[in-house]
Amino acid sequence: MNILSYGLLALVSRTEASGYDLMLKIQPFWQAKHSQIYPLLGSMEEQGLLSAKWIQQADKPDKKLYSITPAGTDKLHEWLLEETAPPVMRDEFNLKCFCIHLAEPSEVRRMFAGRRKYHVERMKYYKDIQDAIPQEYRNPGHIGFEDYILLQKAVMRTKASIDWIDWVEQEYGQWTAEA
Amino acid sequence: MNILSYGLLALVSRTEASGYDLMLKIQPFWQAKHSQIYPLLGSMEEQGLLSAKWIQQADKPDKKLYSITPAGTDKLHEWLLEETAPPVMRDEFNLKCFCIHLAEPSEVRRMFAGRRKYHVERMKYYKDIQDAIPQEYRNPGHIGFEDYILLQKAVMRTKASIDWIDWVEQEYGQWTAEA
DNA sequence: ACATTCATGTAATAGGTTACATGATTTC
DNA sequence: GAAATCATGTAACCTATTACATGAATGT
Fold first, then answer.
1. Which residue ranges make up each domain of chain B?
2. Mean pLDDT of each 10-residue bin along chain B, 179 residues long
3. Do the chains contact at B90 and A156, CB–CB below 8 Å?
4. CA A107 to CA B120: how far, in whole Å?
5. What is the topology classification, in CATH, of domain B3-81?
6. Is the distance between the Cβ of A87 and the closest atom of strand C smaller than 7 Å?
């Protein structure tokens, strides 16, 4: 049981879902491809943490719907109370910052402008999903609360990244004024 | 040449360094163990991007100092102008948020308090390193500028995480008032 | 006609962590 | 006496990405 497995189990604890559903839902918070997810679901089924049934669909491929078992719920609850692993962040942009001394000011500016655009797009992506959550689901009584606060985190951290870029452009501009 | 290799090359472009030095320097921005770093340095040496010499040290083990070659500098500069990969963030805490409905309010509060403490400690860690950079190195003329802005990013994003936790505690508290 | 969405799976490869291996010096 | 720091390296294992494989329905 690795971290991703627990994340999938957590999503299934909310509503039954297919591997495909889970891939889409976990995407904004943990990048994982279907090729990683399907085997994990299979092994959790074997361990009795999940149960599955095939659903026939007209006009769409059949899907395997997973539900959490009582054993799965117990396991999830144990995990919640355990120490949480520190977050891992890997951003190529940070490493590029180690050698901005090699680039000309115009190149540096283009680099930062490009990353700013990326973050602005991300911000819109998160806000659009968040805005789609109805007001009445945004309190702890609903599972929508969980999505709502997670998206808020993404929004706030993304805003910090944009603010940082603006701050750098100011600091950098002071020393390398140019049109 | 993967992303980490470029990051190491970028660090060496600033000052010659040993694998051990590089492991420590890259740590706050890209988690990598020495077992991953040493082979990458070896392969970059083989490719002619780095050159190395052994330094004998009294009272400390000998070390292998790497310097960047002209070919290495060219390669780095090319990399700088290429598309930057999107950042990858994996935080177990986010996945735990998917099932806070399973926990009691006291458990949820403990969870958030624990993560808050973690971020506050990280904040101090980043600020201490940043504060150690002399004022006169904090402008684009010095390589210290690169460290200075990167630490500022870490500080700003960490602050966003703490602010988010405070915001969640407020939102959560409104609905589950308790002493 | 071509791309995308839905839907599942396996195989091969690359990236990253833990463990094994060694060993002197310094700090608690 | 035990732990940490400095310093390098390899082996085994786990995690994650890319590629292979299939196929109907819908949208451009």
1. 3-81, 92-175
2. 98 97 96 97 97 90 96 97 96 97 93 96 94 93 94 98 97 71
3. no
4. 35
5. Arc Repressor Mutant, subunit A (1.10.10)
6. no
